[in-house]
Amino acid sequence: MPVVLEHLGKRFGDGAPVLDDVNATIAKGEFVALLGASGCGKSTLLNILAGLEEPTSGALEVPSDGAAFMFQDSALFPWLTARANIELALQLADAAKATTRASRAARAQELLELVHLAGAGDKRPHELSGGMRQRVALARSLAQDRQLLLMDEPFAALDAITRDLLHDELERIWKETGRTIVFVTHNVREAVRLGQRVLLLSSRPGRVVAEWDVTEEHRTDAGRAGELTGTITRRLREEIRRHAN
């Protein structure tokens, strides 16, 4: 099912609204990048989609099985191997199904292969590079087997080369799994590189004030991609200036 937000609002206590009148529809299997100035409510919106926060007003529809979440920090359990981190997610997700340890181990290995870490299953997080840890975190998110995957700046702390490699990997995995992805980033180039659509949130209160379709031509023509990146960047700067004033 699609993700639908209708006049969604959120405020904490008696404070000013963080989100106000957010409207958006995200189709099943769509990859949407969410941009906005720092503090505009992007993470709050993801928390609402994940069921970690309740909206103050409005309504939303999300898949009945909820959402998987991937954070900026890999947040792996340091005392567990990469494989065991994934197996734990499988165990929690499959608690009602009473799957066997052997079947979870086999599925964990499949997910490691999906993120191109088949030979790293026995390594602990401190033995992995930052990019490898994020691949394990992605595999752990996929282990939850949810249609909706929420990603909160998952590559922000990585160097440019590693980030570009993971862009390729994420695109491949998205196409292979058919997940619906909402990807929060502050990097316009990253949003254009990954998203089928880019949504821009205004400064507080956050609401969707602009959106752009990213076509196949943008993906294959560096000039067209650069033009779109420039257009979005200018609009983002307008929002940042408005917030500063």
Could you characterize the architecture of this molecule?
The chain has 245 residues and is of the alpha/beta class. The chain has 2 domains: 3-66 and 146-244, P-loop containing nucleotide triphosphate hydrolases (Rossmann fold, 3-Layer(aba) Sandwich), CATH 3.40.50.300; 77-145, no CATH class. It is built from 8 helices and 9 strands. The chain has helices spanning 42-50, 82-93, 101-114, 130-143, 160-177, 188-194, 216-220, 222-244; strands spanning 3-10, 19-26, 31-36, 57-61, 67-70, 148-152, 180-184, 197-201, 208-213. The strands form 2 sheets. Strands 5-6-7-3-8-9 form a 6-stranded mixed sheet, with helices on both faces. A 3-stranded antiparallel sheet has the order 2-1-4, with helices on one face. A hairpin with an 8-residue loop joins strand 1 (3-10) and strand 2. Helix 2 packs across helix 3 (101-114). The longest helix is centred in the last third of the chain and has 23 residues, at 222-244. The protein is globular and about 55 Å long. The N and C termini lie far apart (40 Å). The mean pLDDT is 90.
Order of helices and strands: EEEHEEHHHEHEHEEHH
Which fold does the CATH topology of the largest domain refer to? Answer: Rossmann fold
The DSSP helix count reads 8
**Shape descriptor:** globular
CATH architecture of the largest domain, by name, is: 3-Layer(aba) Sandwich
Give the mean pLDDT. Answer: 90
End-to-end CA span:
40 Å
Class from helix and strand fractions: alpha/beta
What distinguishing features does this structure have?
8 helices, 2 domains, 3-stranded antiparallel β-sheet, 6-stranded mixed β-sheet, 245 residues, alpha/beta, Rossmann fold
